[in-house]
Specification:
Mean pLDDT: 91
Number of helices: 42
Number of strands: 12
Largest sheet: 5 strands, mixed
CATH topology of the largest domain: Beta Polymerase, domain 2
Radius of gyration: 38 Å
Structural class: mainly alpha
Oligomer: single chain
Cofactor: Mg(2+)
Strand content: 5-15%
Catalytic activity: [glutamine synthetase]-O(4)-(5'-adenylyl)-L-tyrosine + phosphate = [glutamine synthetase]-L-tyrosine + ADP; [glutamine synthetase]-L-tyrosine + ATP = [glutamine synthetase]-O(4)-(5'-adenylyl)-L-tyrosine + diphosphate
Number of domains: 6
Family: Belongs to the GlnE family.
Helix content: 55-70%
Shape: elongated
GO cellular component, one term: cytosol
EC number: 2.7.7.89, 2.7.7.42
Distance between the termini: 93 Å
CATH class of the largest domain: Alpha Beta
Low-confidence stretches: 1-9, 490-498
Length: 991
């Protein structure tokens, strides 16, 4: 260690050198870097990404060198390239600084003219080291050799930050790291064979590199993915090769890097080594789409080269036909979702690999395009992402400018990934936390980012990160769809671009989930064919819109619906402007159009709802409407018209928009199922009230109305639990006014009720408005309207068990509120008898329920998946709740409730049944109601039967808010929940 200098001339202050550590001045004194001869050296130090860390490492290195320090110190003064490389690597990597301190003489590797060794030279060096080492010294020797080679590469890679040496191309770094990995694997294989076989012959074994190593675009720190292939199918041969492969992984893990063989057939559960024939058999019969995608990067890396070449030759033809597999599209969509779910929401903005606009977006898009078009284009049979992008551009599958921009963004993000990993030689893709400015500033300097005259390097890095992430996100969509638009003549094509053929466009659309690619191209041509402003805006919008559509259950129907809406709103300037300027509007619209057949028809006639897809102060503007406020507005709007036809039309118009709003909010997960049912009930109640008001006003004689009328909601209407496909079950009750004769009053009230039903039931393009009065006394054969006294007399003498049960859900919904309240008070003694329900009535209810189970299920329906009448479905839950009400409501007032869910809560609070049983019934009712609503949203018409596995079931899962939209998982959950509920139903109904 040199003695401190006795003189201190005028030198740059430590602050100007970027040194902030309190010990910096003392460290400079210890090194003797205090004379005019060290000025240039100090300025070189100042340009290190972390000058303090570089200085500390030099001091440690000097201590280790002792007397040898003079040689290094002199070389640093004289050799600008050496100090650039040394300071650059020490300021970038704490781990390589530790390595250099542990092997101080390795600094010679950075002096003079330094070049990267060839792949052959690397392999020879590592094999020589393995052959010449003893068992005791092999691992330390190979570990040091591997770190030395990393040291040289890193020094050349980061040196431009300090001495303006030629910049190593990103591809060069990745290729050299892969060559280094190959050499290390070869050495580990040699040691493994020596351990297992001694000096005897070893069986043939090929090591196939996968992933980034296979593509020769490896990171500084990365798992090296491999597959092992043998040619000896005998048990002894396989056993020996399995032992050799295991030892290879152990040696490599200890000396170099983690070796991961999880990409082999059957993953970690599969056999570590298989013969070539066994590999071929597996991929022919069992492999999934992602496994063929992984094989895109397969490359012989070590071991027997001929066997490795045979493996690649045998399996590559299968890779290029993978897109023809039946499950290709759902597998690809599932892979996309899994990638997105891997990243916790809290760190998504810091993830440069798996986050939105990250490296995986680029890699996934490129690999998918290769799989789609590589079947007919051999030029796409390349492994690296950068090479594949170039080939896709050359083939016309990607625009040349887009490919260049995406390549630049990819290389920028990979550069940051490399620098983050170099710091501690740890595997990471995570940016520093947003508040850690020093760590971000270090990253900026390590990544060659300089101030731009306005912003410092940290500001430039932050802006560049934002820009590159947005560009990747934008190009990720454009990558798939811009060439499609060009193929239909909807966009101007660069003269240098070859363009995509119609056949290639159809292949690509099919791979992205479009089952009718020819029709899809027709829609694209129609949307972009307009040469004016609308066509130009559509050409800008469609790449992103199509990408969002492709992630929905039915992109074909979604694209058709989008075309229909666009053509319907061709004269509405706000429409395309909203899609262009409000990202949330466009994304939400695509999700809805690609999922639902119910909403698009409503939007065609109520397009103003699309504006409500925008974000508001409290979330989406879809939630800004209060159901009660809407109901009053609807009644008031209808009341402005004296003509019943126009009044009902006004009510229908507002109902249409409200249904579109509710359904949209439901599909987007903004409302839960109980909120949806309450809102739908509010719509029906408002329509009934408006229709009753307008018809009554139009038919009231000059002397005044002869009677008052109340509408009593029954079934789900009375329970405030209507679904999208529900009719309005009602009873009409009237009361004569003044001295009006009862027969006259009833006749007039019947006329009013019939007109209400007829005018609401008039066929239209909107969802039906069916008013069902079949729950009235004597059913269809009984009078449509009765007086309060007539109802009282009938129920007192003739009420059957099912009619009493039906009254449990009676609730006044429209008309004269005072009359409706009197009706409810009158029937309380009937539905909640003071002494409870009789045993005979209970037996009759059980008999009717058994008959319903046996006879009412539609022919051909699956009783396990019929949401209303099936096992554990809505009927089971509601009948069970109503039986408990009949038996206990006379002594538990909380059971005087028309809502199934609220009554279940009261049942649990009263401990009539176990809380666990209550929860099972509650979950079954919610699950079946969600499924029933989702069926209408998806199919566009009422239905109760869940479909079998396939696209429509996936759509139902999405509409029901099931995570990932996996129809199979949704159906499994439905069957499990309803099966458990049915057990409770049997227990209670049999009690």
């Amino acid at each position: 260690m040199p003695k401190p200098a006795t003189q201190r001339p005028t030198l740059p202050g430590v602050g100007r050198l970027g040194l902030v550590a309190p010990t910096a001045r003392d460290d400079l004194d210890r090194l003797g870097w205090t004379t005019d001869a060290h000025v240039e050296l100090l300025w070189s130090l100042s340009r290190a990404p972390d000058a303090d860390e570089a200085l500390r490492a030099v001091v440690r290195l000097a201590d280790e060198l002792g007397a040898g320090w003079d040689e290094l110190g002199t070389a640093l003064v004289k050799d600008k390239a050496l100090r650039g490389r040394l300071f650059g690597v020490l300021g970038s990597s704490l781990a390589l600084g530790d390595h250099l301190v542990s092997r101080p003489l390795s600094w010679h590797l950075l002096a003079g003219s330094v070049a990267l060794p060839s792949a052959a030279d690397l392999r020879r060096d590592f094999i020589d080291a393995a052959e010449n080492a003893t068992d005791a010294t092999a691992l330390p020797s190979l570990r040091s050799l591997y770190r030395d080679r990393l040291l040289v590469l890193a020094a050349l890679d980061v040196a431009p930050t300090v001495e303006n040496e030629p910049v190593l191309a990103f591809t060069t770094v990745g290729e050299h790291l892969a060559d280094l990995a190959d050499a290390a694997l070869e050495a580990a294989l040699l040691l493994a064979r020596r351990t297992v076989c001694g000096t005897g012959p070893a069986p043939r074994l090929a090591v196939i590199a996968m992933g980034k190593c296979g593509a020769r675009e490896l990171n500084y720190v990365s798992d090296v993915d491999v597959i092992f292939v043998a040619d000896d199918a005998t048990q002894s041969g396989l056993t020996a090769n399995i032992r050799i492969a295991g030892e290879l992984m152990r040696f490599a893990n200890d000396a170099f890097f983690e070796v991961d063989a999880a990409l082999r057939p059957e993953g970690k559960q599969g056999q570590l080594v298989r013969t070539l024939e066994a590999h071929v058999a597996y991929y022919e019969r069992w492999a999934k789409t992602w496994e063929f995608q992984a094989l895109l990067k397969a490359r012989p890396a070590a071991g027997d080269p001929d066997l490795g070449a045979e493996y690649v030759a045998a399996l590559m033809p299968m890779v290029w036909t993978a897109c023809e597999r039946e499950d290709f599209v759902p597998d690809v969509q599932a892979m996309r979702r899994r990638v997105e779910e891997l990243v916790p929401a809290g760190v998504r903005a810091r993830e440069i690999k798996l986050g939105t606009g990250g490296l995986r977006d680029v890699e996934f898009a490129v690999q998918l395009l290769q799989l789609v078009h590589g079947r007919t284009d051999d030029t796409l049979h390349v492994a690296s992402t950068v090479d594949a992008l170039a080939a896709l551009a050359a083939g016309g599958y990607v625009g040349r400018d887009d490919a260049a921009n995406l390549t630049a963004s990819y290389e920028f993000l990979r550069l940051l990934e490399h620098r983050l990993q170099l710091q501690r030689l740890k595997r990471t893709h995570m940016l520093p936390e947003s508040g850690d400015e020093e760590a971000m500033r270090w990253l900026a300097r390590a990544a060659h980012i300089r101030p731009d005259g306005i912003r410092d390097s940290l500001g430039v890095l932050r802006e560049e990160l934002k820009r590159q992430s947005l560009r990747v996100s934008r190009l990720h969509a454009k990558l798939f769809y811009q060439p499609l638009l060009e193929s239909v003549g909807g966009a101007s094509v660069d003269l240098d671009d070859a363009g995509m053929s119609t056949e290639a466009a159809e292949r690509q659309l099919a791979a992205l989930g479009y089952e009718g690619p020819q029709s899809a191209l027709t829609h694209l041509a129609a949307l972009t064919g307009n040469g004016g402003r609308r066509g130009r805006v559509q050409r800008v919008l469609l790449p992103t819109l199509l990408d969002w559509l492709s992630d929905t259950p039915d992109p074909d129907a979604g694209l058709l619906a989008y075309r229909r809406i666009s053509e319907e709103l061709i004269d509405q300037r706000w429409y395309l402007a909203a899609l262009r300027d409000e990202g949330a509007v466009a994304k939400r619209l695509m999700r809805i159009l690609g999922t639902s057949a119910y909403v698009p028809d409503l939007l065609m006639r109520a397009p103003e709802v699309i504006r409500q897809y925008a974000d508001g102060p409290n979330g989406a503007k879809l939630l800004d409407v209060e159901p009660d406020g809407f109901a009053k507005a609807l009644v008031a709007a209808a009341g402005r018209h004296t003509d019943p036809v126009r009044a009902i039309a006004a009510a229908r118009t507002l109902r249409r928009g409200e249904l579109a709003r509710i359904a949209s909010a439901d599909l987007l997960g903004l409302m839960d199922v109980t909120e949806v049912c309450n809102a739908l009930t509010s719509v029906w109640v408002a329509v009934l009230q408006a229709a009753l008001d307008v018809v009554t006003r139009a038919n009231t004689p000059a002397g005044g109305a002869p009677a008052t009328i109340a509408v009593i909601g029954m079934g789900r209407l009375g329970g405030l639990e209507l679904g999208y496909g529900s009719d309005a079950d009602v009873l009409f009750v009237c009361e004569p006014l003044g001295d009006t004769d009862e027969a006259v009053a009833v006749k007039w009230a019947v006329s009013i009720a019939e007109q209400v039903r007829a005018r609401l039931g008039t066929p239209s393009a909107d969802p039906p408005l069916e008013v069902d009065a079949n729950l009235r006394p004597e059913g269809r054969s009984g009078p449509l309207v009765r007086t309060l006294s007539s109802y009282r007399a009938y129920y007192a003498q003739w009420a059957q068990a099912w009619e009493v049960q039906a009254l449990l859900r009676a609730h006044c919904v429209a008309g004269d509120a005072e009359l409706g309240q009197r009706f409810l008070l009158m029937i309380d003694d009937i539905r909640y008898p003071p002494d409870g329900v009789s045993g005979d009535a209970v037996r009759e209810i059980r008999r009717i329920k058994a008959r319903v189970d046996a006879e009412r299920l539609p022919r051909g329906a699956d009783p396990n998946t019929h949401t209303k009448l099936g096992r554990g479905g809505l009927a089971d839950i509601e009948w069970t709740v109503q039986l408990l009400q009949l038996r206990h409501a006379h002594r538990i007032p909380a059971l005087h409730n028309t809502s199934t869910l609220e009554t279940l809560n009261a049942i649990g609070a009263a401990e009539l049944i176990a809380e666990g049983d209550v929860d099972l019934l509650r979950q079954a009712w919610l699950t079946a109601t969600k499924a029933r609503n989702a069926l209408v949203l998806v199919r566009g018409k009422p239905t109760d039967q869940l479909p079998g596995p396939g696209r429509q079931l996936n759509a139902v899962a999405v509409a029901a808010g099931w995570p990932n939209g996996d129809g199979g998982e949704f159906l499994d959950n439905y069957l499990r929940v309803t099966r458990r509920a049915k057990t409770v139903v049997r227990k209670i109904f049999g009690a």
